[in-house]
Specification:
Radius of gyration: 18 Å
Largest sheet: 8 strands, parallel
Distance between the termini: 37 Å
Helix content: 25-40%
Shape: globular
Number of helices: 10
Structural class: alpha/beta
CATH superfamily of one domain: NADP-dependent oxidoreductase domain
Strand order of the largest sheet: 3-4-5-6-7-8-9-10
Bound molecules: NADP nicotinamide-adenine-dinucleotide phosphate
CATH architecture of one domain: Alpha-Beta Barrel
């Protein structure tokens, strides 16, 4: 995994800081042949340009395509870091275990590096995401999973699972980008030693025409996407940008030959629009 720094996690493992996001490579979001084929092609290109951390999810319908690309890559298993996420329909403990087995089978793996509860869903399952979290912990205990984490967890969700089980998630994958700093969720994660992985790190492309970011990019002779991803890295976030284009995939990995100054970091921090900058649903109400 030369060239990609690793962020240490509280369970003793480490996360390659830059990963490849696979949501929306194909519009199906269902396990169709077209979705899996498009994902397999994109992930094969990503592995070829040097990504070694791949982010997928049960709800993307494309784990099989990720598995196909991994299978044909010939890369040694220990060089790869594969993350997936529990589907919203699979929160009951028996479904956690069954669906996790299906995820491993689709990916063609015996052990997964990182499995995240995709959403807390506080208004489904009688508000019980604690037994879901417990069941995810049992996957680590039985050796099929290296690291359990969460996604879209607000401070209260984090505190509840930690208080009830004593098991701290190693990762919280949340929406973060310069237009949506998501400060309270980031700070709560950091307080508990939970590493933040930023989803939609480029704001799904919405940031790329920002004039301030354009000026900073010109100063460094870099693209706006590289400036935004570098801002994340200097904040210590993992990032999982998605692109269907080889050159962009390469650019998004090439973040370590330059540094943003404290003033530039502060100026980018100043782009935060608070809740108005949020792109995805709010975790308190998403069901
Ligand atoms: P993103 O990575 O912020 O942005 C992707 C968009 O930016 C695409 O339209 C892509 O276009 C464009 N892009 C990428 N690199 C570029 C570059 N160098 N120059 C110009 N345009 C560029 O958004 P995302 O896909 O929503 O988020 C990334 C990953 O986060 C997802 O793929 C998924 O794995 C994860 N995610 C997780 C959650 C969650 O709830 N946990 C939610 C959403 C996403 P092209 O493809 O045409 O290059």
């Amino acid at each position: 995994m030369a060239g990609t720094p690793r962020i240490p996690l509280l369970d003793g493992t480490a996360l390659p800081q830059i990963g490849f996001g696979t949501f929306n490579i194909h519009p199906d979001h269902q396990p169709t042949r077209a979705n899996n084929a498009a994902t397999a092609r994109a992930v094969a290109t990503a592995l070829d340009v040097g990504y070694r951390h791949i982010d997928t999810a049960q709800m993307y319908g494309n784990e099989q395509g990720v598995g196909e690309a991994i299978g044909v890559s010939g890369l040694p298993r220990q060089e790869l870091y594969v993350a997936s996420k529990l589907g919203n329909d699979n929160h009951r403990p028996e479904d956690v275990r069954r669906s996790f087995g299906d995820t491993l089978a689709r990916l063609g793996l015996e052990q997964l590096d990182l499995f995240l509860m995709h959403w807390p869903l506080p208004s489904r399952y009688g508000g019980d995401y604690v037994s879901t979290w417990d069941a995810m912990g049992s996957l680590v205990d039985d050796g099929r999973l290296r690291t359990a984490g969460v996604s879209n967890f607000q401070p209260a969700h984090l505190e509840r699972i930690i208080g009830a089980t004593g098991r701290v998630p190693a990762v919280n994958q949340i929406e973060v980008h310069p237009y949506f700093a998501n400060r309270t969720a980031r700070q709560a994660s950091q307080r508990h030693g939970v590493v933040v992985v930023a989803w939609s790190p480029l704001g799904q492309g919405s940031l790329l025409l920002d004039p301030l970011l354009g000026r900073i990019a010109a100063v460094h002779g870099r693209t706006v996407a590289q400036i935004v991803l570098r801002w994340h890295c200097q904040h210590g976030h993992g990032v999982i940008p998605k692109s269907a284009h080889r050159q962009r995939m390469q650019d998004n990995l090439d973040l370590f030959g330059f540094e943003l100054s404290d003033e530039e970091m502060a100026a980018i921090d100043g782009l935060d629009r608070g809740e108005a900058g949020r792109i995805g649903p709010h975790p308190d109400t998403w069901a």
